Fold:
Amino acid sequence: MEDGFYGAWFIMIILKRFLEKCFIRYDEFVNENDNSKHLLEMVQISQLQPIPPNINKKSWVKNDVIEVYESDCWWVGKIIKYLLRENKYVVDFPKSSQEMQVDASCIHIHQDWVQSNNVHDFTWELHIIGMVCIIFH
Structure:
């Protein structure tokens, strides 16, 4: 929820759970006082979701909602166009109002962790133009 990271997803491990919070360790971020130690933090359970299933997709079309791995975290964006010569995609990141050229290897399908009417039932919802499906997890 910090400035500059709003809307990004980070890979982490839950170390301990309390009532509505968890003590976590980030995979990619280190303690600013000791770079040899992973960053530890207490977060709300509502901020967590499991890692989405890996769905292999090789190409994208304009307006596909995707996630880009950049600066040690995943950012939600939208495909604007494909640059054939560079073999890259131009991606718009609406939360930061920025555009970036991105290599296809850094992109995966955006999936939201959506709770159904049943409090204990969650599904993955995909955001691909022309494809409607839900993956149950």
Residues 8-47 form one domain. The first strand starts at residue 8 and ends at 9. The chain is about 0% helix and 55% strand. The two ends are 26 Å apart (CA to CA).
